[in-house]
Amino acid sequence: MISKNTENLIVKYINKAANAEELDQLRDWVKKPNNYKIFKEFVRTHYSILYTLENQDKLDVKEVLLQRISKDKSVIKQKRIRSIMKYAAAAIFVLGLSYYYQQGYLSNIPTQTISEDTVPVIIEPGTNKAVLTLEDGSNITLGKGKNYQSENINSNGEKLAYSSETGTKKSIVYNYLTIPRGGQFYLKLSDDTEVWLNSATQLKYPVHFVTGETREVELVYGEAYFVVSPSSNHNGSRFNLICNEQEVEVIGTQFNVKAYKEERNIYTTLVEGKIDFNANDTKRRLTPNEQLNLNLDTKELTVKKVDVYNEISWKEGVFSFEGKPLKDIVTILSRWYDVEFVFENKAAQEKRFNGSLRKDVNINEVLNIVKNFGIIKKYEIKNKIVLLK
């Protein structure tokens, strides 16, 4: 549990509003066993930022946080001394507010410099939208305010669900659900399996499954999170996911697969249950919190333990990053905001970010967070090109 006082200290720290004494209290609290983990989870749950790291592999994350708190305290003390020496009491307030604004310390205030004749370009976040391709090849655009209903399909424009019916092999037909850049969508298959589809994703699936036969769907490309209806509810019928060169055999479980066209690795992350992974005549069984990486060039399979939250938070409306370089982060952001990033400052590509970003904010807020932490000096948006400087 976290006390209200400690919660207030963290809130002030995140908003750059803590004084020197409060920073001392927070630093002492973080030093105690398990408190860093509580701090991390609290910020991850309630805020869009944590802090940045440039040498994730070389530095202890907790120590970096303690160093940062101490540095903030030092900045506050230096500012206080300079202000007392140079300004009267009324002027000190104005200077202090100006300093916090210029440094991005008030993180909810945009820090772009806008001239009088310049209108800032605002790029809004993605939305629930998709294109449903029926068995006859016709396309149905799904999105907010666009309801669609047929004999066995129902959509309110933001979710898509199929009626729970079965058929024969002769009658089986397939639909495609394609999620564009800047989109996401929820799908419920006819066997009650739930699927969350990320931006730039396409899934192929049968309108209904055949009783007693393996339930099989295909992730053509992109990223999807599955909550599979267990075999026990379907007369023992297995659930298989085909994705490029791999096959995932599922036994009532939750898992995430990321297989974007422009990337040469397929990542399969198990959250709950069991899955058997088959690729290149090799079979591996994953246990919860394990991620399997298939390199499409070398055909190599590697398995490692991961923080599952970082892999699946996208479906909960959050991007969570653990020591990821900025070049990888902007790849993810480019799909959600449907923009392209260009690095004028090449060194910024390798700078690492450790924290969380909400998906429901416009890209300017995200870029200001990156800017406020000193990862980039400034940015420009022209059409759908974001130039990082």
From TrEMBL:
Pfam families: FecR (PF04773), FecR_C (PF16344). This is DUF4974 domain-containing protein. Keywords: Membrane, Transmembrane, Transmembrane helix. Residues 180-275 form the FecR protein domain. Residues 319-387 form the Protein FecR C-terminal domain. One of its GO terms (molecular function) is sigma factor antagonist activity. Gene3D superfamilies: 2.60.120.1440, 3.55.50.30. PANTHER family: PERIPLASMIC SIGNAL SENSOR AND SIGMA FACTOR ACTIVATOR FECR-RELATED, PROTEIN FECR. Coiled coil: none annotated. It comes from the Bacteria. The chain crosses the membrane at residues 84-101.
